[in-house]
Each structure stands twice: as C-alpha cells, then as structure tokens.
Specification:
This protein is mainly alpha-helical and 452 residues long. The strands form 5 sheets. It has a two-stranded parallel ribbon. A hairpin with a 2-residue loop joins strand 9 and strand 10. Helix 6 packs parallel to helix 17, helix 8 packs antiparallel against helix 9 and helix 8 runs parallel beside helix 10. The longest helix has 31 residues.
C-alpha cells in the first residue's frame, strides 16, 4: 500500500530543523553524525517553493557559521569562497539584466550558497581526526537508515503494508518503480537513482571504520551495514548509478594498488554465488544486459525518441548548437526559460513548474559557465591527486570523492558531494603529525561552546 506526500513530510521536516537547532546550540560537532542523512532525506514542505531539509538546513548552518563561529569556517578557505561568490554574483547580475526569469536567479544563487555552507561546515568540523571519524560514521549511519527503510519497502511491497513510494507531487501522487518484475528501492531518498550513491558511500565508510574499531559488536554491525548497503544499491537498478560505480572503480584502479587486491576477490565471490545458482545467474545477467541495452537505446534515440522525458537530451542538443553556452553560461537560473523558448512546452517548464536538469555538468555550465565547471570537476581532480597516500583514509576519501563527482554527471549529488568534498579538503590540509588513531565512535565531545 504505497503512499506519497502526506502529513509525515511536515513532521519529518520539523524534526530535522529541531534536531539541527539543538545540536548547533549545544554540540555542533556531533551534527556530523546526522548531516549526511539530513541532506539525503527527502521530505517536502510547500512554502513558496518546495522546501526540503537539504535546502533549508544548509541555510541554518550558514547563519550559524556567520553568527556563532564568526565566519572562521569560511576564512579557512577564503580563496575558494571569493571565487565562487564573485562568479555567482556576476552570473546573477547578468540574468537580472536580461530580466526573463523573475526571482529564479536569486533562488539559484541561494542554492550555491547552501552548497558552500555544507562544504565549509564539513571542512571545519573535520579538521581533526576525531571530526573526520565522526563524519565517516555519519555516512555509515546514513546508509544504514536508508537501507533499513529500503528493506522495509521490499517487505511492504510484497505484503501490502504501507510504505512511502517516489513522491511526485503535493496531491499525494506517487510512483512505484519496478524493472523486470523486481521492486526498485528508493529508501527515504527521492528516487532509486538518488539512493544508489548514498548506499555506496555509506558502504565505503563502513568498510573503512571496521579498520578503526575493536573486534566486537561495532565491527560486526559495520560489516553487516557495508554488505547490505552495497547489495541494496544494486536493487536501485539505476543505469546511471552502475555507470558511476564503474567509473569510480576504474579511476581507483589507475590510482591505487590496494583495489587490485580487492576487486579479484569480489569478482570471485560473486562468480561463485552465480555459479551455485544458475537461475539467479540468468536473471542477473538478463537484468544488467537489458538495463544497459535500454539506456543505450534511450541515449542513441535522444530527441528522436517517441517520448523524450530526460531534460538532459534537450540540454545536450542546445549545447551542441550553441557551444558558448557552456563557456560563458546563460546567466544564473535562466536555462529553464532558454530551453523552453528553444524547444517549446514541456521543456524547461511545464506551465509555471520548473523542470530541473539531473546532470550537474549542464546545470553548472549553464549557470556559471566554464569557470564553474573547472572549479567543481577540475578542483575535484586536483583534490584527489593531492590527498596523502600514507594512510587507508586517503584511499577511501579518494574513492568517495570520485564516486559523488562521477555520479553528478548523471544525477544531482552535490548536497552529499559538498559534505564529502569538505571532508577530503580537511584531510588534505591536516598536518601529517596531526593524525592519530581516532576514538572508535568519535565520542570525545568538544566543549559546549558555539564553535566546533
């Protein structure tokens, strides 16, 4: 018995704000445990626009860092913030001068401000080994919560119990995603394709944490969380997620010898499992073959398909016809109007409703041009290459950054991505002598002051 938007959205949204407010007043660093889940927990509240925890909580963090932390998180990375803010202001002014997008440029500017605030909070909170460990636990907890609900969704789907499906509107409209007779889980994220990378990141964090805890209940729980999260991520049956994982693993194979020891073992285990069950092997093979074939046909057809439902195809076609659009940008928040004027109703806009782009390449390119793309993707590559290679943590951080950056090509992933980038920057800037074996649960709490 699936359902969509309901009063539970208001309750979940309010609980997120109350929890964040409490932690910021008394134990701000402990928010690292919960922030990954809050940024990926999809509940909506209509207030002018559709508000979600991922849009509102970063603004609360921004206000806290300016007022209580006196801007210290931003001063640590002032060069990055000045470049992004200056670039964003120029783009906003250009859009306002054209004056065809209403207040959209200002709302998009707030979106980039929220991403910067997530990055700043994570980078500042993770500047110590304890903070980084807490953030890793946050990713593991996030995957555990989404995974637990995904398991419940499977049971509920088979037995008729109530469960939250994919929310499609304020009227309670919803979708239940299936493929090849199997239920596609979406956890408490918005859609299956947005759940995959969340589970994968949590599985990586859980594997890392097993190396830093003593044998016992915690290690068993972490191993179980890693296995279940990784397995459930494949039940999202998202071609974009599979592609991002393949790119991430391929990139790590080029940079690390550690993965060369892990991948053959994983392939052998999966191979034995499939060999032991020919029926399962047949279903899995058909599933992946059909998923890849469907996506290949969809991409090949592009705008010639009978039903074009991916806005990215229109964005790609427009960028090919107007190459400078991804160099200079179109002005902050204008791409919806531009695509609508170029291709007509149902592209960019449906009535007054905006149709967002999933691919961050097109969204950032149209908003901020080539400089914005270089900051995100060029900066991410530089960050990965700059991470220290003398510890296991650098391996996992590289993997995490590569995962969310690769995923952003297909799906918007920069809320959690900004958190992970902040973690990686904090580690990259940490003095070599600062690292020490962390407390297994990161339980050492900073003094109860309004700083972290």
């Amino acid at each position: 018995m699936p359902f969509g938007f309901s009063v539970l959205d208001y309750v979940g949204f309010a609980l997120c704000l109350i929890y964040v407010g409490y932690e910021l007043l008394y134990r701000p660093q402990r928010l690292l445990y919960a922030l990954p889940f809050i940024l990926t927990f999809y509940v909506i509240v209509p207030f002018g626009t559709l508000l979600t925890p991922s849009r509102v909580v970063p603004l609360v963090l921004l206000a806290w860092m300016v007022i209580s932390a006196r801007g210290e998180p931003f001063r640590r990375h002032l060069d990055v913030f000045l470049v992004v803010i200056t670039l964003s202001i120029v783009s906003v002014l250009a859009a306002l001068m054209i004056a065809d997008s209403g207040s959209r440029p200002l709302l998009r500017f707030l979106n980039y401000a929220t991403l910067l605030s997530i990055f700043a909070f994570a980078a500042y909170g993770c500047r110590t080994p304890k903070g980084l460990t807490m953030a890793m636990w946050g990713l593991a907890i996030c995957a555990g919560l989404h995974g637990a609900y995904a398991l419940y969704q499977i049971v509920a789907f088979e037995t008729g119990l109530p469960f939250r499906a994919i929310v499609r509107g304020l009227s309670g409209r919803f979708d239940v995603a299936q493929a090849y007779g199997l239920f596609r889980v979406n956890g408490l994220a918005s859609e299956p394709k947005r759940l995959g990378y969340v589970l994968f990141a949590g599985a990586l964090a859980s594997i890392y944490l097993t190396k830093s805890v003593s044998p016992g209940l915690h290690r068993t729980a972490l191993r179980t969380n890693a296995i279940i999260s990784f397995a459930l991520s494949f039940l999202t049956m998202s071609a974009s997620y599979f592609a991002a994982v393949a790119v991430s693993i391929g990139g790590m194979l080029l940079m690390s010898s550690r993965l060369w020891r892990i991948v053959p073992v994983g392939v052998a285990v999966v191979g034995l499992a499939l060999f032991a069950s020919p029926d399962l092997a047949s279903r899995v093979t058909d599933l992946f073959a059909d998923t890849v074939e469907d996506r290949f046909e969809e991409v090949s057809a592009g705008l010639d398909a009978v039903r074009v439902y991916r806005q990215e195809f229109y964005a790609e076609d427009y960028a090919k016809a107007h190459p400078l659009s991804l160099v200079t940008g179109l002005g902050m928040g204008r791409y919806n109007n531009v695509l609508n004027e170029e291709y007509g109703e149902g592209v960019g806009l449906v009535g007054n409703m905006l149709l967002p782009l999933n691919s961050q390449i097109f969204e950032i390119g149209f908003d901020l041009g080539l400089p914005g793309l270089l900051i995100l993707y060029g900066g991410s590559v530089a960050l990965i290459l700059s991470l220290k290679t003398d510890r296991k943590l650098s391996f996992f951080l590289k993997f995490l950054v590569l995962c969310v950056v690769a995923q952003s090509v297909f799906v918007q992933s920069l809320y959690l991505g900004s958190f992970i980038l902040g973690m990686a920057v904090a580690y990259a800037n940490m003095p070599r002598g600062a690292w020490a074996p962390p407390d297994p649960m990161g339980r050492t709490v900073m003094p109860r002051k309004l700083t972290i």
